[in-house]
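thought: fold this chain, then report.
action: predict
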Amino acid sequence: MTEAANAWTEERLEQLRKLWDEGLSISQIGNALGVSRNAIAGKAHRMGLPKRPSPISKSATEAKKPAKAKPPAEPVNLPLRLELRKLSWSRSKCCWPTGDPKKTGFSFCGGPIVPGKPYCLAHCEEAYTTSRDSR
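observation:
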């Protein structure tokens, strides 16, 4: 680049303004005028041209688009690891399993627990049996 190429004449400033208004990127304008993108950015700032939305920032482009996102339909039979994510776990609720853990609809009892045990009273009676009870 020669010094003449770096001189900002009225004609070149007008060309910069025109290309800016057309929406060309800073790099494209720099290539068209034969200067660096930094020279274009600095000159555009000094000329008071409107700022460009960041190509990295999605918020500027998302603000222009209306939100049409629909929640994805849930599959009927999720893999076990995904099905288990939907369950709510709590140490204060009965964790007696209900249903087949390999099928949709598997859950836990969820009743209030007996202090010191992981199950509700009814499930404690079923879980904690001794051989004497069965005689």
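thought: worth noting. The two ends are 101 Å apart (CA to CA).
final: tokens above.
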